[in-house]
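During the reporting period the student researcher (J.K.) took over the structure-prediction task from the postdoctoral fellow and processed the backlog of single-chain submissions. One of the processed entries is reproduced below for the supervisory committee.
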Amino acid sequence: MRNYQRLQKLVALSALAFMALIPANAGEKAPTSTSNKPVQMTVTLQVLGENKRMPDVKHEDVIVKQGNERLPVTGWTQAQAGHSGLELFLLIDDASDARVASQYGDLRAFINAQPATTFVGVGYMRSGVVQIAQDLTTDHNKAAKALRLPFASSGAYGSPYLSAIDLMKRWPDRGNRRELVMISDGIDRFRGGPHYRGLGFISPDVNSAGGIAQRNGMIVHTIFTRGVGRLGNNFWEITNGQNGMAMLSEQTGGQSYYLGTQNPVSFKPYLDELQKTLDKHYVLEFTANPGTKSGLQNVKLSTEVAGVELNSADGVWVNAK
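J.K. obtained the following structure tokens:
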């Protein structure tokens, strides 16, 4: 009898141990782990200070954070080495003063100096769209010859940001890096105008253009040039337009160039600095945490390498689970 009771106790203990191994929701499907999504973005490696040597920054030196979480970096390649293909669109505002044509010599020299792997296009922003004067081509001389005098009119829907959106929506993804240079006063003549007086107005289309650019991995650089008409001579409107262009460049990881409210004597210093920026591009790859819906996710980049700054877009598009 005593042996029988001992056997019963052993069976009971074995049953309890077995039950403990069974999940409480055994009747439900066990959740599967969600793999992270690999994403890419173009980053500018900026050396702080003049005449300083570019340090060697490796992929393990790059820190990518989403909130407080550090994301794994899986790739870090100099663009000219592994992703040399670049599509570069120059967009000139048709509301620009015709004197901008005095800068065309510098623009032509900049276009012709591009590497053979760079496609260059030229377009004009008017009526909320881009009228393409020369589609993307590696014939740089052909692109340089496409420059013409602006119409000195913004058209019916005079917003350079709507025009940029129009181009970005029509720009197919061929696997190359995509960047555009907006030459404008940044004034939204469609949504802004006489009803507003004062500093602080930023066209709502700036954020729209920035979101589309980030979704498609595009970088927007901006160069200020004076526009025509009463708005083009208004200090408030000029300053607000510059702020709008600077915001768009900041959101997308680009550069913004201006000299107060006046036109520069030459675009050459701007274009020389822009070329240095293009030459310092790296393609960063990391894994992001997907959400239930596809969307932009803000990320913050940094490095522990002294004297170096990483410039990039505010966010990256991550597809859903």
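The committee noted the following: The chain has eight helices and 15 strands.
J.K. will present the remaining backlog at the next meeting.
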